[in-house]
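WARN retry 2 of 3 for item q-0093 after timeout on previous attempt; input resubmitted unchanged.
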Amino acid sequence: MKVVVTGIGVTAPNGLGTEDFWHRTCHGCSGIQAITSFDTTGYRSTVGGEITDFIAEEFLPGRLIPQTDRMTKLALVAAAEALADAAVSPETFDRSEAGVVTAATSGGYEFGQRELQNLWSLGPDRVSAYQSYAWFYAVNTGQISIRHDLRGPAGVVVSDGAGGLDALAQVRRQIRRGTPLSVGGGMDASLCPWGWIAHQATGRMSGSNDPDRSYLPFDAQADGHVPGEGGAMLVVEQEAAATARDVPRIYGRIAGYGATFDPHPRTGRPPALRAAVERALDDAEIEPGAVDVVFADGAAVPDLDRIEASVLRAVFGAGAVPVTVTKSMTGRLGGGAGAVDVATALLAMRDALIPPTVHSRPAPEYELDLVTHLRIQPLQTALVIARGHGGFNSALVLQSA
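OK item q-0093 returned
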């Protein structure tokens, strides 16, 4: 059974809405800048991928504003855009058979921080009743399901940066088991003091506060990543069902998926990223030479970049396939990262071009064909790679419609 993507919704630091995001991504416009949502005085890192033009009241009913964290507000907007893009209406599907699967890493950090401050400074009577679920990493699935009355199979995935791909893989499984339509993707928003401390604790944040030099995948000067907020939601369907209801467009097909978990470093066993990539290619029933572009994870941590580059060389050959890291314009979006990369890859195949990796000067040692300027090129097959903190590895193969 072929599983296809028919709708895309994106909320990202460099574009609110899919077409705005895509236009800015193609032109290499970065959303990484000095953080404005809280006072970063005293923090080692002060730049990130921040969505500065989002006013929730312009998109959501007033009753949802006090109930939801920023992460969920962004997820609701992206899901609504994806459903509209796929021309999904109450008449087009059976609500009891339409599902939702989302990924999140941090949950509602901003909401949780505010309510903890209320608890400590004002007392328990001033803590919002919505705190019981607004902080929860599964809340995006629930709120999307409620708002759009999607009563089919639902779920949530928590695997850090790999989560967006893992959520779409779970949607694909549901579709293959008979669910005709599902919303899948990932969203995170943790640009608040509590969230920022959590990011710093990983030890993987960049030490540079120059927005143009703070996140440099596969660059010799890379010293860490920049966190961001945002993500993407996609409408995924059985191809036959999508064709039967005469959808406006089919962006592409989810053709293959692979996932692994790294062994503990002290075991001496090698990282498992290569196995994830090879499993995705095997699942898609294609040879490495069929891949036209790789949307890489691009951790910008030298050891991690070295591992990913070695996998790409081993699977494809040195410089044999174009590689891009478009999250260099958004920062790493946690559970939203992989979903945004999937949306980007589908749009790239639609428009026959490869958007650039910005600011990086590719280090020769990696032997990669890193795309640093917009490249016009027909694309039939794309590979998206995502990794999560702690050892998660995922890879997704997409093919054009």
